[in-house]
Amino acid sequence: HIVYFAADVEASVVSSAEQELQQVQDSLTTVSRLVDALKKGSVSPQRKLWIVTQEAWVISHEHATEKARPGMASLWGLGRALALEHADLWGGLIDLDSTVDVRTIGEQLLSVLLNSAGEDQIALRNGLLHVARLRRYRTLTEQLPPRFRQDATYLITGGLGGLGLHMAKWMVRHGARRLVLLGRSGLPSRKLCSSVASASR
């Protein structure tokens, strides 16, 4: 396996948002270069790419010390896209917590890599493995109305397709006033753009 260690278990706390953003950009660039090398055959095709992060997710709200780092979570977004677009080279994602012991982390990671049993989204917390699963939750007895702030800006990724535009219209109807739509497809027709604009008036 090829393991990209985005987590730095001995690093000090990031001092600023700019420093965090720079770390995220560096990590995303490095992973992209690794993928390019794998696709060009510079590395054996039998090798699988794993990304190790730290505090990308809050697994349990019972622990007050557990927090999430958005920069690490962005690597999970990239990893999930790679799993779909480059399934042949994808290994998975492993998230560590803030209390990881640097003396034993190597053994823990090796155990996970050798015994992942097809799991590709794993969180290690206090020696226990957590994996991604969909769970049914009880529905709310009272339907709560959505609340969007009129002074906030909302980002919709995949916002240029039919579903994204439908979501944008719905948000405007429920109070959102500033939306940013991102997508890999081209801009929609002016007719569709006009319908979204008219819904905001």
Walk me through what this model shows.
There is one protein chain. The protein has 201 residues and is α/β, with parallel strands linked by helices. 36% of the residues lie in helices and 18% in strands. The protein has helices at residues 17-39, 70-85, 105-114, 162-173, 190-200; strands at residues 2-5, 49-54, 90-96, 121-125, 128-131, 153-157, 178-182. α4 (162-173) packs parallel to α5. The longest helix is centred in the first third of the chain and has 23 residues, at 17-39. The radius of gyration is 20 Å and the shape is globular.
Detail the topology: elements first, then pairings.
Layout: E1 2-5, H1 17-39, E2 49-54, H2 70-85, E3 90-96, H3 105-114, E4 121-125, E5 128-131, E6 153-157, H4 162-173, E7 178-182, H5 190-200
Parallel strand pairs: 1-2, 2-3, 3-4, 6-7
Antiparallel strand pairs: 4-5
The secondary-structure class comes to: alpha/beta
Order of helices and strands: EHEHEHEEEHEH
> Main β-sheet: number of strands, strand sense, barrel status?
5 strands, mixed
Q: What is the averaged pLDDT score?
A: 80
Query: Mind telling me the C-alpha Rg?
Result: 20 Å
The outline comes out as globular
DSSP helix count?
A: 5
Rounded to the nearest angstrom, the distance between the terminal CA atoms is 54 Å
Order of strands side by side in the largest beta sheet?
1-2-3-4-5
Low-confidence stretches: none
Strand content: 15-25%
What percent of the residues sit in helical stretches (DSSP H or I)? 25-40%
Tell me the number of strands. 7
